[in-house]
Amino acid sequence: MADKGKKDKGGAAAPAAPPPAAKPTEDDAEEEKEKKPSKSQQPKDEVGTRKGCRRYLWEFKDSNRQFWVMGHAVVKLFSVGCLIAAMIMFTGTAIHPLLTLIVTMEISIFSFFFTVYTLAIQRYMPFILWPVSDLLNDLFATVFLVGAVVFAVKSRQTMPMNYFIAVILIGVAGFFAFIDIFLQRKHFKGKRIKKNVLVPPVRKEQVKEKEVAKPKEEGKPPAGEKTKEGEKTKEAEKPKDAEKPKDAEKPKGKKGGKK
């Protein structure tokens, strides 16, 4: 019996080893990559759902690209450069304080718009119509600078060379501002004024009242259908005897013959 037990123990087969795991193929690896949550792809021409620093970087690049490609930055730089050079040339000569006021005012305004467009500040203040404000600034700058040139020429009988060069530089700055007016027109091409812009938005309460009133009106048949049904019932109530052919109604002859 002991021998049989030994044989049974020896005869019992060892548990089979698990089959080797299949190596992941390239297709499986691609499927796993697709399953993994990837970052949302944002459009290049629009802000999309960017937030925080990502949005500001996109706005900064797009604003500078438009500002330099459309020529506004170059024109404003030339205007500011000419006005600064004019202020330098005015040193050492007696000038009217009005000229200094106009030149410094235009330098500050041009610098303001240059800073706004460079740092993309206008993208975060959409309630201001920036193309319109820049267009009006260029228009007024042209008028002020041309007026400054006329005033500078009339206020003095003799003009030194540095004064004459400063007046010419002011005129060149006004010419560049005039060019920028035509560059601003590109922003308004292909755009139409929206209708009902000044109409106040509809309140939520009014919208709910309209939605409640619609199903009640849908339950009632329209007035046109009522009239048609009424006409049909009246026609059905009319007796058939009333509808006799006209040929059946013959005129009766006169009684009595000829005498």
UniProtKB/TrEMBL annotation:
Residues 1-10, 32-48, 204-251 have a biased composition (Basic and acidic residues). Its main location: membrane. It comes from Pteropus vampyrus (Large flying fox). It is found in: Membrane. Residues 67-189 form the MARVEL domain. Residues 1-48, 204-259 are annotated as: Disordered. The gene is CMTM2. InterPro entries: Marvel, MARVEL-CKLF_proteins. One of its GO terms (cellular component) is membrane. It comes from the Eukaryota. Keywords: Membrane, Transmembrane, Transmembrane helix. PROSITE patterns: MARVEL. This is CKLF-like MARVEL transmembrane domain-containing protein 2. The chain crosses the membrane at residues 67-92, 98-120, 127-151, 163-183. It is a multi-pass membrane protein.
